[in-house]
Amino acid sequence: SQKDNKMDKDGVSGYVHSKFYDEYVEAISEFVRIPSLNPIFDQEWQVNKSLEKQCQHLVGYLEKQEIQGVKYHALVDEKRTPFLIVTIDPFNSPKNKEECVLMYGHMDKQPFLDGWITDPCEPVIKDGRLYGRGSSDDGYAFFTAVLSVKACQAQNKSHPSIVITIEGSEEGMIDDLLYYLENYKGLLGKPTIVVCLDSVSFTEETLTITSCLRGCITFDIYAQVAENNMHSGMGGGICPNVYNILNCALARVQDFKTQ
Prior knowledge:
Elements: H1 2-33, H2 45-48, H3 50-65, E1 70-75, E2 83-88, E3 100-106, E4 124-126, E5 129-131, H4 135-154, E6 161-167, H5 176-183, E7 193-196, H6 232-235, H7 242-253
Parallel strand pairs: 3-6, 3-7
Antiparallel strand pairs: 1-2, 2-6, 4-5
Helix pairs in contact: 1-4, 3-4
């Protein structure tokens, strides 16, 4: 009934709120304290092992939740950034054995850059908001995914098979994600839906769900119509216009009317 559904939502919501202030905030604060930059922004990443420390921190949080049916694989292949795979068996859900939810996030951060009033690796809570590098991109992802599962189990609510993947090289052009997905695809099952916990929210009051993303393509394009430069008074209208050629070529890649 609608009443039962309302009570279910209140129970799960109440559990999340209690754990948010009891454990979640401290976990994400510790995430901020660990300067987990990927190889593009930290040349000493293999020496200071901050990415591995971050991965261990995530595992520590996971273990404290005592989730039923959970297994994890903290992978650190040679010359690769860490990659964490968490698998969780279906809970109280015999009808959803074939369903599999894949959740994604990343443990590496953007570089610290300038303009910080406080230390970017020291979490600061001001006016109800937590400030610190990596807290929103993408520190919340893992803790949110784990807490959502724990909330379901704590309230005896069903959930399907769940896989959580957390990479260590999202911020930059590194192919470690593809490497791990290809080499450890046996751990991923057959996802029926992918939830990427790394997007934007326009307001604090509205849950924002991004259903699709448009990618970005970077390339060099070269067009030549003559061996030498030509004055417009001599070649205009006779020699093909390079800009028109390029415009036509780009129009084949992107529809400027809709995009």
